[in-house]
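Students often ask why we bother encoding 3D structure as a string. The short answer is that it lets us treat folding as translation between two languages. Here is a chain of 93 residues written in the first language.
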Amino acid sequence: MSEGGLAVAAAEMCIGGRLGLELLGTLSPETCFAETNSCLLAEIDPAAEADFRILFAGLPHEKVGTVTAQPVLKIAGEFIAVDALVKAFIPAQ
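And here it is in the second language, the structure alphabet:
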């Protein structure tokens, strides 16, 4: 999560998978847009969440949201359609 922070990484994941993402409402705008090196945003199958937590035990990690079938990014009280994200990120050809 470098350029644009969590918000941009989340948008890029939505674009890549054409799925939605609802980030937790407790995340501040500062957290959503803070640029941080050496951080990852991972999409984990709910069935594998316990294994993921075991694998990363002892390292700082937290759940920040949930993938949704509805193609909408919900972030900091805003709703952005994935189609709009695609249009903004991928220039017309």
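Translate back mentally: The two ends are 27 Å apart (CA to CA). Keep this in mind for the problem set.
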